[in-house]
Amino acid sequence: MTEKDVLIRLSKGIYYYPKNDKLLGLVYPSAEQIGKAIAKRDKARIIPTGSYAMYRLGLTTQVPMNVVYLTDGSARKVQIGKQTIVFKKPSLKNLIAKNQLSNIIIQGLRAIGKENITQAHLLKIKKIIFDSNEMDDLHNNIIYAPVWIQKIVLVS
């Protein structure tokens, strides 16, 4: 199927049906789409971490070249072109929160660091929490975060 261009091989064991755009030509899937597809295939949960969590929250506009996920599936690195998707095995306490927004907020704030949180970051987090329909879940799951992150979220 790859020889007939029905499928494109992105990496070992990862294939995708090509999509053509009139203006852009061949459009490849994003790292997030690939990560979700791998997680779905492996029946695993994934949580974005580091700069990718910050990007997902809107705390930075830079799209990271290396996307790192915490997973309860197998740890691995997937190289797709110049981009790398890393799946890491965390300690269980990092996967205990069931709410995806809680996990992203926790990981995004960890990536920034307690000392580097600005007023702009706090306002952005407050807006995300206020706009979400998951406030009850967020407050129930934030107890699994470090105390300094709990204070930020619960004050919001």
Task: Spell out the key features of this protein.
156 residues, alpha+beta, 4-stranded mixed beta sheet, 6 helices
Radius of gyration of CA atoms, rounded to a whole number: 18 Å
Number of strands: 8
Q: Estimate the global geometry from the Cα principal axes.
A: elongated
Number of domains: 1
Distance between the termini: 52 Å
Could you give the topology of this structure?
Elements: E1 8-11, E2 14-16, E3 19-21, E4 25-27, H1 31-42, E5 46-48, H2 50-57, E6 66-71, E7 76-80, E8 83-88, H3 100-112, H4 119-131, H5 135-141, H6 147-155
Parallel strand pairs: 6-8
Antiparallel strand pairs: 1-2, 3-4, 5-6, 7-8
Overall description:
The chain has 156 residues and is of the alpha+beta class. The protein has one domain (8-155). The chain is built from 6 helices and 8 strands. The strands form 3 sheets. The protein has a 4-stranded mixed β-sheet. A two-stranded antiparallel ribbon has the order 1-2. It has a two-stranded antiparallel ribbon with strand order 3-4. α2 (50-57) crosses α3 (100-112). The chain is elongated, with a radius of gyration of 18 Å. It starts with 7 loop residues before the first strand and ends with a helix. The mean pLDDT is 84.
Condensed summary:
This protein has 156 residues and is α+β, with helices and mostly antiparallel strands.
